[in-house]
C-alpha cells in the first residue's frame, strides 16, 4: 500500500554512470524522502530500469511529479510518474465465467486493489444481476458474427467516455482486434490466459494440456497485444495435476490459478510496479 | 521400497465389471497378500489401469508371476509383471554436463534407486575420470558429423551385450535417431528436457525462455520417442525466475530442477509405477 | 464428482490377508461396478484403510449400502457408508472476516461443493446483509464474556434442529468449548488456522510468524478437537514471504491460502475422502 | 556472480531522509559505478537497510572500500564492506550423512559457490575417503561423552589457524555449545535444520512431523545461535507428503530439501546478501 502524498516514478533508458545518484539526489534536494528505490540493469542490452517512490509535500505533489519527469528525461530516460494515491479507473470485461469477476470485485471491496471499478462490460447478460448486486454499472454489448467491429467501436466510445485507464479481461471470451488494441495504446489491457504460456496458446488450453498429458497446468496474466497470447507476461503460476484429473478437473483447479494470477498482475499494475520493454516485463515487487 | 518376495504387476485394457475383484481374488486364492493396489479408469476411453503389488512365497515367486500374467491376459489385459527385488540394468548416457550424472550416481549409492548402473556411455571424455572414481565402466563412443549411424550401432551392440533394460539420457547432447529408438522398443529411454514441455521444445530452451520473458522455468522427464521432445511425460516441475535472472542464472537454477525431475522419473520407472498408454503416462505414486 | 447411484465406503481396521479381494468380491457378486478403490496400509500400526466407490442399481442403493456395511464389519472393519449423491447439510460459522465466507459460498454456487448450505451462524451482524444477498439464513448468536455457554447451547440446538452434519469455521473468532465439540461427536467441525501448524498455534499467528522471521507462511485446515489447534490435519499449504512483507502483507497474502486450503479440505470431506484415525488423517484424493 | 573489481557494502541504521542520495552520491563522486542497489525500510522499527554493489578502479579498491565504510558510519550506519572477488574461507562440519556434503562440494566445483573450502571437520571417519577423493583436507575430531569441551577447543584452534570465515554445519550431528558460538562471533555458523522451524525444533524432526500428521515437510537454513534451532532464518522450503509416506520416505524426500535450502543460504551468504538484525534476516536476493 502506498502512503499518502507519495509519488511513484518508473523510468528506463540507456545505462550510464551516476543514474542512481542523480535521481535520488534530485529527490533529496527537492525535499522528498525516498520510501522505495529499486533498480535493475539489463547487462546485455545496457538498459537501466528504476522504480522510485518518495513522499512530497501535499501542496507540491503535482509540481514535483512533473519536475522530476522533466529532470529524468534530461538523463535520457523514458519516464512515467504517478500520484500513488490516485485511483486508476478500471473496466472489467467478462463473458459467462464468473470466478475472476467475483474475485476481482471482492478484492477491490476488501481494499486490496486501490482502483475505481467504473464499468463491467460484457457480450452476455449472464453476470448483469451479480454486477448490479455489487452496485456496479453493467454495459451489455453483444458481439455476433459480423458485428464485432461495431461492438468494439461501442466499447471504445464507452472506455473513452468513462476515462478508463485499465481494461481487465476477466475471462472475456472474445479476441480483441488489433485495431481495438491499437486504439488502447495508452490504456493497457490485461488478459488472463488459462495455460502456462507459451504452451497451449489459443483456444481450449485445458483440453490441449489434457491431451498432451502434462503434469502441471498453469495460468498466465499478460498485457494483450495484437498477436494472440503473445504479449508481455506479468505473472504466471502452476498447479500439479495427475492422470486422475479429467478436463473438468483441470478447469476447476485452474480457476483458483486464474484468480490468483490475474489478481496479482492487476495489483502490481495498479501499484505502478510493472515496466514493459520489448516483449517482456520488469516487475518491481 | 519393495519388501522382499513381492511381485508387481502393471495392467491395462478395456474396462468391464469385476476386474478389481478378479485380480485381487486370484492373488488371494493363490496365497498372496496384496501390499498395494491402485486402480485408475479413463472414463472417456473406457480403459482400466491397475498396479498391484503382493507377496508370494519365495519358492513360487517366478511361477506366480507368470501364472498371474496369463490369468490377467484372459481378462483382456495387457500385463507386465516384475519381481520387485530384481534390479534393473541401467546405462547412463552423458556428454559434458555433470550435474545429473553425479546426482543419479549418488542417489544410487545411497540406496534410493534400486538398480544396477552397469555402464556410462558418452560422446566425450570429460566425465571418464569421475566415472572411474565411482568405479563405473566408461564407454567412450564419439559422435562426429557423418559417424552418428556407426556410433549408434556401437551403442546398441553395447546395450545388447550388457543386457541394458533402461537408458537414462542425463543431459546427453545428441538426438537419438528414430532407428535407434525403434531398436530400443523393449528398453525404455528416459530423457530430461530443460523446459516445461511443450513450451520450448528443441534446442537452447533456457535461451528461449529468457527471450519470451516467462516467470517460471521448468524441466520435463519423458520417455524418448522418434518425435523430438514429444514423448510421454513422466514428471515436470518449475521454479520461479524474475527479470533479474539472466540466461546463466536460468541455467544454474535449472540444474536443480533437472536433477530432481529426472531422479523422480527414474525412481518411479524402477519401481514399476509408470504405465504408458497413447502418448501419456499413468504414474501410480 | 460422483456419478449418480454410487455408494462410497470408508473402512479401516486390523490388516489381514484377502481384504481387497473380499470387499471387491462382495461388490462384484452383488452386481456393483467399482469406480474407484484406494487402499492404504499403515505398516507400523498394521492397519488397513480403504475407500471404495461403486455403482449400484438405484432401487437397491440403500439396501446395498447397509448390507455392505454389515459385511465389512464381519471382517473386523470400522465402516462408514454414504450415498454419494446425498448432499451433506452444512452450517458455516463466521465472525467479521469475509474472505472464506464468500469463497465457500461462491464455490458452492458454482457446483464445486456438493452440499446444502443451510445456515450461516455468527457472533456478529457484519455479514448478515451479504448472507441474505446470497439467499442464506443468517443466525446471529452473540457471544459476550459470561454468555459463551448459553450461546453454545443455542448453537447446538440450532444445529440439531437443522440436522447439520458438518460445521465449517470460516475464520469464526471464538474458541469452541470442549463441551460443544463433545456434543458434535457425529458432526465434524472443520477449522482453518492461519499458520502452518504446529508452528504458531493459538492467537495472532501472522504476528508470531512476522516476529520469528519465517520465509514462508502457511494455513492449515483441520478437524477441531478439544485441544486448540491440535486436531487431525486435513490440508496445509504455504506461500513465500520476504523481509519486505509487514504483518499486514502477511494477512493479505494469507487470505488466499486460507481460502484455498479450507475449500480443499471441505471438498475432500464432502466427497468422503477423509478418514481420521488417531490424530491423523488418511486423505484418498 | 560478481564482476571483477566490485565492492559490496551492507549497511543498516536509523532511517533518515537522504540516505540513498548520500551513499549513491558518494560512490558517484568517487568514480564508482553502481551495479546493484537495494534498500529496505522497516517502517515499524524505523531502520534503513541497504546493499550496494559498485565497480571501482582495481588500484583503488581497498582504499575505496575503507573510505566508504568510514563515510557511511558518519551517517549513523553499521557497515560491512567486502571486495566481491575475495573468496571466503569455509569449513564444512559433517558427521555421517553425506548428501549435503557432496552437494556443497559439487556446487563449489561447478563454480556456483565462490569460496575456498579449506577444511572438512568431522566427529566420524565415515566421509574421510570421500573428502580425500575431492582433494580436501579432513580433520577427524571425535566427540565422546565428556570430551566435547576439549573437542570444541581443538575445532576452534583449527578454525583460527586456517583463518576460517564461515562454518557450514552440513548435517553435523552435535549441538555446538554457547561457548563455541560466542567464540565464533565474527565467523558465522550456518546450520540446516530438517524441519520447517519453528515447528519441530530439537531432535528427530521427521519423526515428530510424521507423528503430527503434517501434509508438508520442510527444511530451514539459519545462523546458529546459543538457543538451539532459534537463530535468524535465512531460507526455508517445503515439500508435500501424504499418509502414504512413512518416516523413511520423509527422510528421503527431506534430503533434497536440505540440500537446496542449505546451498541457497550459503550462496546468499557468500554473495554478501544477508543482513542480520535482531533475530531476523534481510536477504537482498
TrEMBL record, chains A, B, C, D:
Protein name, entry field: Formyltetrahydrofolate deformylase
Organism: Termitidicoccus mucosus
Record-listed E.C. numbers: 3.5.1.10
GO molecular function: formyltetrahydrofolate deformylase activity
Metabolic or biological pathway, per its Swiss-Prot or TrEMBL entry: Purine metabolism; IMP biosynthesis via de novo pathway; formate from 10-formyl-5,6,7,8-tetrahydrofolate: step 1/1
PROSITE patterns xrefs: ACT
Hydrolase among keywords: yes
Chemical reaction(s) catalysed: (6R)-10-formyltetrahydrofolate + H2O = (6S)-5,6,7,8-tetrahydrofolate + formate + H(+)
Entry-linked InterPro entries: ACT-like_dom_sf, ACT_dom, Formyl-FH4-Hydrolase_C, Formyl_transf_N, Formyl_transf_N_sf, PurU, PurU_ACT
Keyword line: Hydrolase, One-carbon metabolism, Purine biosynthesis
Active-site annotation: 229
Role noted for this protein: Catalyzes the hydrolysis of 10-formyltetrahydrofolate (formyl-FH4) to formate and tetrahydrofolate (FH4).
GO BP term (any one): 'de novo' IMP biosynthetic process
Family statement: Belongs to the PurU family.
Domain ACT residues, every copy: 8-89
NCBIfam families referenced in this protein's UniProt entry, alphabetically: PRK06027.1 (NF004684), PurU (TIGR00655)
SUPFAM superfamilies found in the cross-reference section: ACT-like, Formyltransferase
Lineage of the species this protein comes from: Bacteria, Pseudomonadati, Verrucomicrobiota, Opitutia, Opitutales
Amino acid at each position: 500500500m502506498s502512503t499518502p502524498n507519495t509519488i511513484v516514478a518508473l523510468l528506463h533508458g540507456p545505462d550510464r554512470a551516476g543514474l542512481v545518484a542523480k535521481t535520488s539526489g534530485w529527490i533529496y534536494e527537492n525535499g522528498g524522502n525516498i520510501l522505495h528505490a529499486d533498480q535493475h540493469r539489463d547487462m546485455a542490452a545496457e538498459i537501466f530500469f528504476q522504480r522510485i517512490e518518495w513522499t512530497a509535500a501535499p501542496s507540491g505533489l503535482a509540481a514535483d511529479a512533473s519536475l522530476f519527469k522533466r529532470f529524468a528525461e534530461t538523463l535520457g530516460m523514458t519516464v512515467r510518474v504517478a500520484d500513488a494515491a490516485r485511483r486508476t479507473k478500471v473496466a472489467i470485461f467478462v463473458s459467462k465465467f464468473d470466478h475472476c469477476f467475483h474475485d476481482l470485485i471482492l478484492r477491490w471491496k476488501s481494499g486490496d486493489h486501490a482502483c475505481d471499478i467504473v464499468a463491467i462490460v460484457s457480450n452476455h447478460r449472464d453476470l448483469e444481476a451479480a454486477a448490479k448486486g455489487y452496485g456496479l454499472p453493467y454495459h451489455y454489448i453483444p458481439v455476433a458474427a459480423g458485428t464485432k467491429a461495431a461492438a468494439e467501436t461501442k466499447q471504445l466510445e464507452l472506455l473513452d467516455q468513462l476515462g478508463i485507464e485499465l481494461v481487465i479481461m476477466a475471462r472475456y471470451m472474445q479476441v480483441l482486434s488489433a485495431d481495438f488494441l491499437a486504439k488502447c495504446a495508452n490504456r493497457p489491457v490485461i488478459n488472463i490466459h488459462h495455460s502456462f504460456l507459451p504452451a497451449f496458446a489459443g483456444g481450449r488450453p485445458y483440453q490441449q494440456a489434457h491431451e498432451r498429458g502434462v503434469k502441471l497446468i498453469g495460468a498466465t496474466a499478460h498485457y494483450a497485444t495484437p498477436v494472440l497470447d503473445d504479449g508481455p507476461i506479468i505473472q504466471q503460476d502452476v498447479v500439479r495435476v495427475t492422470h486422475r484429473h479429467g478436463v473438468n478437473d483441470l478447469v476447476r483447479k485452474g480457476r483458483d490459478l486464474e484468480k490468483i494470477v490475474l489478481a496479482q498482475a492487476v495489483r502490481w499494475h495498479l501499484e505502478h510496479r510493472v515496466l514493459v520493454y520489448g516483449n517482456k516485463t520488469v516487475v518491481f515487487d
